[in-house]
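sry for the spam today, last one i promise. C-alpha coordinates for design, 124 residues
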Protein backbone atom coordinates (compact mmCIF):
# COMPACT_ATOMS: atom_id res chain seq x y z
CA UNK A 1 0.00 0.00 0.00
CA UNK A 2 2.89 2.39 0.72
CA UNK A 3 4.16 2.03 -2.85
CA UNK A 4 0.75 3.02 -4.21
CA UNK A 5 0.64 6.05 -1.91
CA UNK A 6 4.15 7.11 -2.88
CA UNK A 7 3.27 6.80 -6.56
CA UNK A 8 0.21 9.00 -6.04
CA UNK A 9 2.28 11.60 -4.19
CA UNK A 10 4.87 11.52 -6.99
CA UNK A 11 2.20 12.21 -9.60
CA UNK A 12 0.74 14.99 -7.44
CA UNK A 13 4.21 16.56 -7.09
CA UNK A 14 4.75 16.37 -10.84
CA UNK A 15 1.32 17.86 -11.53
CA UNK A 16 1.94 20.70 -9.07
CA UNK A 17 5.34 21.49 -10.58
CA UNK A 18 3.85 21.48 -14.10
CA UNK A 19 1.02 23.71 -12.88
CA UNK A 20 3.56 26.19 -11.50
CA UNK A 21 5.35 26.23 -14.85
CA UNK A 22 2.12 26.80 -16.73
CA UNK A 23 1.21 29.69 -14.41
CA UNK A 24 4.57 31.33 -15.10
CA UNK A 25 4.09 30.62 -18.81
CA UNK A 26 0.72 32.39 -18.79
CA UNK A 27 2.27 35.43 -17.10
CA UNK A 28 5.13 35.50 -19.60
CA UNK A 29 2.75 35.19 -22.54
CA UNK A 30 0.92 38.27 -21.28
CA UNK A 31 4.22 40.12 -21.16
CA UNK A 32 5.00 38.86 -24.66
CA UNK A 33 2.18 40.99 -26.07
CA UNK A 34 3.54 44.06 -24.30
CA UNK A 35 7.04 43.23 -25.50
CA UNK A 36 5.84 43.11 -29.12
CA UNK A 37 4.13 46.49 -28.76
CA UNK A 38 7.29 47.98 -27.25
CA UNK A 39 9.42 46.56 -30.07
CA UNK A 40 7.16 48.12 -32.69
CA UNK A 41 7.22 51.44 -30.84
CA UNK A 42 11.02 51.46 -30.50
CA UNK A 43 11.63 50.33 -34.10
CA UNK A 44 9.31 53.08 -35.36
CA UNK A 45 11.20 55.65 -33.30
CA UNK A 46 14.50 54.43 -34.82
CA UNK A 47 13.11 55.11 -38.31
CA UNK A 48 11.95 58.60 -37.32
CA UNK A 49 15.09 59.70 -35.47
CA UNK A 50 17.86 61.68 -37.07
CA UNK A 51 20.20 61.52 -34.07
CA UNK A 52 22.93 58.88 -34.35
CA UNK A 53 23.18 58.63 -30.57
CA UNK A 54 19.43 58.16 -30.15
CA UNK A 55 19.33 55.58 -32.94
CA UNK A 56 22.21 53.66 -31.35
CA UNK A 57 20.49 53.68 -27.95
CA UNK A 58 17.14 52.60 -29.39
CA UNK A 59 18.69 49.83 -31.49
CA UNK A 60 20.28 48.44 -28.31
CA UNK A 61 16.86 48.45 -26.61
CA UNK A 62 15.31 46.81 -29.67
CA UNK A 63 17.99 44.11 -29.60
CA UNK A 64 17.20 43.34 -25.94
CA UNK A 65 13.51 43.09 -26.75
CA UNK A 66 14.30 40.73 -29.64
CA UNK A 67 16.56 38.59 -27.46
CA UNK A 68 13.86 38.24 -24.81
CA UNK A 69 11.27 37.35 -27.44
CA UNK A 70 13.62 34.80 -28.97
CA UNK A 71 14.34 33.28 -25.56
CA UNK A 72 10.62 32.74 -25.03
CA UNK A 73 10.22 31.19 -28.48
CA UNK A 74 13.16 28.87 -27.80
CA UNK A 75 11.78 27.81 -24.42
CA UNK A 76 8.36 27.06 -25.88
CA UNK A 77 9.87 25.15 -28.79
CA UNK A 78 12.05 23.01 -26.52
CA UNK A 79 9.63 22.39 -23.65
CA UNK A 80 8.35 18.81 -23.75
CA UNK A 81 5.90 17.67 -21.07
CA UNK A 82 5.97 14.06 -22.35
CA UNK A 83 7.74 12.14 -19.59
CA UNK A 84 7.21 8.62 -20.94
CA UNK A 85 9.87 6.27 -19.60
CA UNK A 86 11.31 8.74 -17.12
CA UNK A 87 11.55 8.23 -13.37
CA UNK A 88 9.91 10.60 -10.90
CA UNK A 89 13.34 12.02 -10.03
CA UNK A 90 14.12 12.67 -13.71
CA UNK A 91 10.73 14.30 -14.25
CA UNK A 92 11.07 16.54 -11.20
CA UNK A 93 14.60 17.56 -12.21
CA UNK A 94 13.42 18.34 -15.76
CA UNK A 95 10.47 20.39 -14.50
CA UNK A 96 12.67 22.21 -11.98
CA UNK A 97 15.16 23.12 -14.73
CA UNK A 98 12.36 24.24 -17.05
CA UNK A 99 10.90 26.41 -14.30
CA UNK A 100 14.28 28.10 -13.79
CA UNK A 101 14.64 28.68 -17.55
CA UNK A 102 11.17 30.18 -17.76
CA UNK A 103 11.80 32.46 -14.76
CA UNK A 104 14.96 33.63 -16.54
CA UNK A 105 12.95 34.37 -19.69
CA UNK A 106 10.41 36.27 -17.57
CA UNK A 107 13.22 38.37 -16.06
CA UNK A 108 14.68 39.08 -19.50
CA UNK A 109 11.30 40.19 -20.81
CA UNK A 110 10.53 42.37 -17.80
CA UNK A 111 13.94 44.02 -17.96
CA UNK A 112 13.70 44.68 -21.71
CA UNK A 113 10.18 46.08 -21.43
CA UNK A 114 11.17 48.35 -18.53
CA UNK A 115 14.22 49.60 -20.41
CA UNK A 116 12.06 50.26 -23.47
CA UNK A 117 9.58 52.27 -21.41
CA UNK A 118 12.44 54.35 -19.97
CA UNK A 119 13.97 54.98 -23.41
CA UNK A 120 12.43 58.41 -23.74
CA UNK A 121 10.25 57.43 -26.67
CA UNK A 122 6.74 58.73 -26.02
CA UNK A 123 4.00 56.11 -25.79
CA UNK A 124 1.53 56.10 -28.63
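last one done:
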Amino acid sequence: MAALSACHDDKADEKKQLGDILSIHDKVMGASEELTKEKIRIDSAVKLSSSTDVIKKLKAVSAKLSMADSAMDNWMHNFNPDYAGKSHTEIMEYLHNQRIKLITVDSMMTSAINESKKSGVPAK
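The mean pLDDT is 91. ok im logging off now
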